[in-house]
Design brief:
- The chain is globular, with a radius of gyration of 15 Å.
- It has five helices and four strands; from the N terminus they run E-H-E-H-E-H-E-H-H.
- The chain has a four-stranded parallel sheet, with helices on both faces.
- The chain is about 40% helix and about 15% strand.
- It is an alpha/beta fold.
């Protein structure tokens, strides 16, 4: 059974951000969504496979006044609850895994392709710019997808 689309303007009760290793894109998305969305929405993130915490993620989140705290990358198997209204995938690998996982579930899956900032090389500033770019893309996408029009105007 295919996922059921949420009606326009209806916020999901729970969102899972999914990427390859839950080290960069999905934990950033989780923290940004927790700040931007109502506290009544359960937000989590996971990876298809286990990863290592990335210090550049800590640095770009700190610029926004956010932190991962003691949180470490986790896989879908590590999640306490595996039912979500919406799974947002941020990499091709995660998207394929989510579609496979939800083949028989009524869960909406959205693919938000995001560049992998770990591919950046060069100076620390160049690498940080790559991570900031992903952070800003995620903020924009979360705002466009979930915030009401009047809230979108306030964040511009």
């Amino acid at each position: 059974m295919a996922g059921l689309a949420l009606a326009p303007g209806v916020l999901p009760r729970s969102i899972l951000f999914l990427c390859g290793m839950n080290a960069v894109r999905s934990p950033m998305a989780e923290q940004l969504a927790r700040r931007m969305l109502p506290a009544t929405i359960f937000v989590a993130s996971a990876g298809v496979r286990a990863g290592e915490r990335d210090p550049f993620v800590d640095a770009v989140l700190a610029e926004e006044g956010l932190t991962l705290g003691e949180r470490h990358p986790r896989t879908m198997d590590d999640l306490e609850d595996d039912y979500f209204d919406l799974i947002v995938t941020l990499s091709p690998e995660a998207h394929h895994a989510a579609l496979e996982l939800t083949r028989s579930l009524a869960v909406e899956v959205e693919y938000w392709p995001m560049p992998d900032p770990t591919d950046a090389d060069g100076t620390r500033e160049r690498i940080m710019a790559s991570y900031r770019d992903v952070r800003e893309r995620l903020k924009l996408r979360i705002g466009r997808r979930f915030l009401l029009p009047e809230a979108k105007n306030a964040t511009d």
